[in-house]
Design brief:
With about 350 residues, the protein is an alpha/beta fold. About 50% of the residues lie in helices and about 15% in strands. The chain has a domain of about 110 residues: Magnesium chelatase subunit I, C-Terminal domain (Helicase, Ruva Protein, domain 3, Orthogonal Bundle). The chain is built from 15 helices and 11 strands. It has a 5-stranded parallel β-sheet with strand order 2-5-8-1-9. A hairpin with a 5-residue loop joins strand 3 and strand 4.
């Protein structure tokens, strides 16, 4: 048996073992999060891809509970920051304080901020000032912070799950494009359907409180992230990702008419990287050994919607960015299927 064949068999075995562990993790999450399967899938896909997620939803839909449950199931130390207009960068990163020792000598001691954890929940991130929001930029991209000229690495793995209220915009500061691009996916958290809401009522208003159990630990999650990057991706999927991302850029020659007319700016190469990782993670969560073009179509909106913007004229006409992405995705996947 050749070395390549042995390596392929080993990877298949690792993927299958990880798939079983992920199924257990999803079941553990479901003990506290009723319904919202797609939200849980996208959040886990972001973490398996080593990225961050922006949760968009109204208050009371379980976003905070989801993050708390994931910290338990994935075995990650978690901190929560409630973003407010008066929050300062030092409140997130930490600061140096001057201390006097017993011998009278003075020295600076660094006190870590809440960002020094493995899973950070940034609640209502758009309520903080741009200066405070920018404190997360380096941490999200480079997994380290610079304070008083000294680089301080963050624990690995490090993930930010941020929340935003899409309705209440008074007193908020919209996230700049550079920071939005740091989020691997934007996850819309919808209202539950009637039967799901009935299950929530029954499960959460009794005496017993459901508890999740730990399935992963930091080392196991890092190992899972490495397996995701080793998963094979077919040429059709790679071409679908490239076609989709490039078709969403209005200045490119590959953009359809709806993009040229309605989109102000489109996604960059980081969007293609995000799709390449998340389609693998979605396939893994689905128990498959490799992603498909259908995975690209399913993840198009979560990966692209926060990396694009409509023109003023398109917004005035009431166009929706999700509609534009949907039309481009249908066109691209139809072409790939025909090929």
């Amino acid at each position: 048996m050749t070395e390549r064949a042995t390596g392929a068999e080993s990877l298949v075995a690792e993927i299958e073992a990880l798939g079983g562990k992920l199924a257990e993790a999803r079941q553990a999450v479901a003990t506290r999060i009723i319904g919202q399967e797609e939200v849980v899938t996208l959040t886990l896909a972001a973490m398996l891809s080593g990225g961050h997620a922006l949760l968009m939803g109204l208050p009371g839909l379980g976003k905070t509970l989801l993050v708390d449950t994931l910290s338990t199931v994935m075995g990650l130390s978690a901190n929560r920051i409630q973003f407010t207009p008066d929050l300062m960068p030092a409140d997130i990163l930490g600061s140096e304080v001057l201390e006097t020792g017993t011998d009278g000598a003075r020295s600076f001691r660094f006190i870590e901020g809440p960002i020094f954890c493995r899973l950070l929940m940034a609640d209502e991130i758009n309520r903080a000032s741009p200066r405070t929001q920018s404190a997360l930029l380096q941490a999200m991209q480079e997994r380290e912070v610079t304070i008083a000229g000294q680089h301080r690495p963050l624990p690995a793995p490090f993930h930010v799950l941020a929340t935003q209220n899409p309705i209440e915009q008074e007193g908020t500061y919209p996230l700049p494009e550079a920071q939005l691009d740091r989020f691997l996916v934007q996850i819309d958290v919808p209202y539950p359907d009637r039967e799901t809401e009935r299950g929530i009522l029954v499960a959460t208003t009794g005496i017993d409180e459901r508890r999740a159990h730990q399935v992963f630990d930091p080392e196991a999650l890092i190992a899972a992230q490495k397996i995701v990057r080793r998963m094979p991706v077919g040429e059709a999927v790679v071409e679908a990702i490239l076609d989709l991302v490039r078709a969403c850029r209005p200045e490119g020659g590959e953009a359809p008419e709806i993009v040229r007319n309605a989109v102000a700016w489109g996604p960059g190469p980081r969007a293609a990287q995000a799709l390449m990782l998340t389609v693998r993670a979605r396939a893994l969560l689905d128990g498959r050994l490799a992603p498909s073009v259908e995975d690209v179509a399913a993840l198009a909106r979560p990966v692209l919607v926060h990396r694009m913007a409509l023109t003023f004229a398109a917004r005035a006409e009431g166009m929706d960015l999700g509609q534009v992405i949907g039309e481009v995705t249908s066109r691209v996947t139809r072409i790939e299927a025909a090929a």
